[in-house]
Design goal:
This protein is an alpha/beta fold and about 280 residues long. The protein folds into two domains: about 130 residues, 3-Layer(aba) Sandwich (Rossmann fold); about 120 residues, NAD(P)-binding Rossmann-like Domain (Rossmann fold), CATH 3.40.50.720. Helices cover about 35% and strands about 20% of the residues. A six-stranded mixed beta sheet has the order 2-1-3-5-6-4. Strands 9-8-7-10-11-12 form a six-stranded parallel beta sheet, sandwiched between helices.
């Protein structure tokens, strides 16, 4: 039986086992996906001996996404761009790695917004951390002309600019409303709006009527940002959809089946999220 795990510190909050074990049952596959609490000092031994621990691969979450790079044999272009990973699998005896956040985000956008077309358009990204980096990398692959990043730390935006080039612009909060007039996409990559965190206070009034609003937060399922966007009639993409779609990429690597994100699965995971 193939076993896969998600590793992090802490890890009890992860909903990934619900998702992957649902797919294993749905497709009639012999396998198990479980949580493994791995402390930072345990990471080198665990990943070096991943197969000996009984696993054909793993997902990697906070705080290991960068450090784990030292313990894989091959990385793809996405990881080399990002400087972090979240998915590891074996090809023979070699550990391969990718980061599925960007593709998961984009797959969710496509599923949420019919006839999505972002080529040569502008986006505004709130936040400049690891998630923002993954989203920016994927949006540039989709052909976006410019991405304006709003963040409290200018140095982080400068880092993004050095990685991705002149298409990355700094957005001062005072200029958000005027800059949003020509944005086709707004993405919240911060923790604002998450349960237990401050709300995201933002004015959506100047966004074009066809602008897409996406939030990576999925606790709660519908954030204040998404409610405000829906009140304006703007197309939206929520954080839970991204979590589900990014899971399809690892599942196919480990079990050889490309799973489908269904409403039944969405409802199952949503039922585990407090209102």
């Amino acid at each position: 039986m193939k076993k896969v795990c998600v590793i992090g510190w802490p890890i009890a909050h992860s909903r990934s086992p619900i998702i992957h074990n649902y797919w294993l049952k749905h497709y009639g596959l012999e396998g198990l996906y479980e949580r493994r609490e791995v402390k930072p000092e345990e990471l080198p031994e665990f990943l070096t001996n991943l197969k000996a621990h009984g696993y054909v691969g793993c997902n990697v979450t906070i705080p290991h996404k960068i450090e784990a790079l030292k313990y894989v044999d091959h990385t793809d272009e996405v990881v080399r761009h990002m400087g972090s990973l979240n998915t590891i699998w074996y090809a023979g005896d070699k550990r391969h790695a990718t980061s599925s956040d960007g593709d998961g985000f984009y797959l969710n956008l496509e599923a949420s917004v019919p006839n999505l077309n972002l080529k040569n358009k502008r986006a505004i990204v709130l936040g400049a951390g690891g998630s923002a980096k993954a989203i920016i990398e994927r949006l540039l692959r989709a052909g976006m002309a410019e991405i304006a990043v709003q963040n409290r730390t200018p140095a982080k935006i400068a880092e993004l600019n050095s990685i991705f080039g002149k298409q990355i612009k700094m957005l001062h909060p005072d200029h958000f409303v005027s800059e949003s007039k020509t944005a086709s996409l707004l993405v919240n990559c911060t923790s604002q709006g998450m349960k237990g965190q401050p709300e995201l206070e933002i004015d959506l009034s100047a966004l074009p009527t066809d602008a897409v609003v996406a939030d990576l937060v999925y606790v709660p399922l519908e954030t204040r940002l998404l409610r405000a966007a829906k009140a304006r009639g703007l197309p939206c993409a929520g954080g839970l959809g991204m979590l589900l779609h990014q899971g399809t990429i690892g599942f196919e690597k480990w079990f050889g089946v490309k799973p489908v994100v269904t409403q039944e699965l969405y409802n199952l995971v949503a039922s585990d999220i407090p209102p």
